[in-house]
Structures are given as C-alpha cells and as structure tokens.
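for the writeup, i need someone to sanity check this before i put it in the appendix. the sequnce is what the collaborator sent (i think, or maybe the updated version? ugh). structure was predicted straight from it, no edits. if anything looks off just tell me and ill rerun, i have time this weekend
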Amino acid sequence: MKQEYFVVVLAHSLRGRLRRVHIPHQAVYAILTLALLGCFSVFGFVASYARMAWKVANYNALKQEADGLRARYQSLQKVVGQTNEQLASLQLYAKEVSVAYGIKQKLEGPADISAEGKLVPTFAESVQDYDFLRTTNLLALSTRNSGRLRPTRSQPGAQPSMWPVQGNITGPFGKRTDPFSDEGAFHKGVDISVPSGTAVHVTADGMVVQAAMVTGGYGRLVVVDHGGGTQTYYAHLSRIYVHAGQEVRRGDLVGAAGSTGRVTAPHLHYEVRVGGTPMNPRRYLSTAAIYQGTPRKDFPF
C-alpha cells in the first residue's frame, strides 16, 4: 500500500529546474499539531503573566489604602486624646464652678424614678475633692488667719478695685494659642505688658498666703487672699517684697514685674479667683483706677 503524501514543487530562479518534494500526510499533521500546542503554551504563559501583573497591581493598591487608613487611625487617636484632655479639663472647671456657686447636684433620671436613679457625687463630696486638690500649706495658712481677716463684698477694699500696674493688656483671659506649643490653651488671667522692675501693687485689702518661686510656669508668685473666697495672683515677678502671713492694704507694694517662669517677654500675669475658679479680671479692671499714691515698702529686698 502506497503512503499518501503531498507534493511540493520547487523551482530554481536561475536554472529554471523544477524539483518535487514529497511530504507525507503524517508529517504535515504532526507539524500542525506541534504548532497548535505551541500556540496554546504561549497563550498560557501570556495569560499567567497578565494575571500575576494584575495581582501585583491590586496588592500595591491595597497596601497604599492600608497605609492611608493607618495614618487616618493614628490621626484620629491623636484627636481623641486631645478631646479627652479637653473634656477632663472642662469637667474639672465645671466641678470648680459648682463648688464656687453652690450648685447642688441631683439624682439622674426622670422625677418619677428618682428613687432608683444613679447617684452622682454629692455637693459635700465635691467640696472634699476640691479641698484635696488645694495645697495643704495654703489651706492651713488660710484657716489660721481666717479669724484675723474677714472682709466682705460690702466692706471697702475687699474686692479688687485697681490696676496692679499701669500698662497694656497683651494676653487676654480665656482660650488662646499657647506661645510655646502652638496648641489651644486656657489663659486663667491677663498679661499686662510693663518693663522689668515695674512696681506691682495689691488691688485690694487682704493677706498674703503665698510669696515664693513656684513651678508650673508662674515663676515668682504672690497670692493674696481677700476673704469671701476671693484671691488675686501676681506672677512672673522679678522681686518679692512681702511674705506669707503678712496683711496688706489696697495699693501696697508686693513685688516688681519681671520675666521669671514660662514667659517670652517681661510682663505681669494677673489673676482673680473666686472659690478657686479663675474669673475674667477685665470685669474688675474696667472700672478700676491706677494707683497714684506712694506705696509702703515693708521689705527692701
């Protein structure tokens, strides 16, 4: 039996001879099969590479998204921390205000179920907590001298009624940007700009309960108790002319302005506190006069 084959005729371009080539069918089929298998292999390699490239691109996108979410989470954690600090500060101020003005705390919940409501700290407990936060020396000194000095609102000199120094207010009371950290902060008094060494006068009759260098940014500090829960603070002093336990009269010299403590320039930090709660000194300074007399200097050092 003769084998079937294909005949391929080849012609020479110069000599013109014809040559026949016999190619069996099986060889042609084998070549076609191999070519088809090669096409499938190439297609498989290309598809595998494309799939791998797609997975790598998807992984990079997911990684970038995860990094972005991590950064947002850290930012939110920082915001939550700052919010918690502000909330704690507001709670402390609210507690001090309630102590200062005698606000009574009640049972939580509707009136008809008040007997089963959750109890919050009583007014007496709040007073105890607040007293615990006050320094022991200050409380002891105030108690010891309470019988000697008891001015009231109706007595002249019991409330701040003059400017401690003559100058311009450069740092107002209330919320502001801290000059050192550039973060939000609460300013408990006012800053009055004056040259270093300017005489500082007490703004009402009272008794000195603190006169020393302190930590926390005040520097050299003088605190005068005027009775009735009212106190005035004179901070960043360069010199102190009084001592704890000394009685002073409105206009007496208590120190000299300076730049001790946490300051950027010489000035006087002046505070008015009622029941331990900082009050805006502008309410006292707006109608107050500048001291014009010759102060009595008790201690020349």
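Confidence is low (pLDDT under 50) at residues 104-120, 134-143, 146-157, 294-301. Residues 1-89 form one domain.
thx in advance!!
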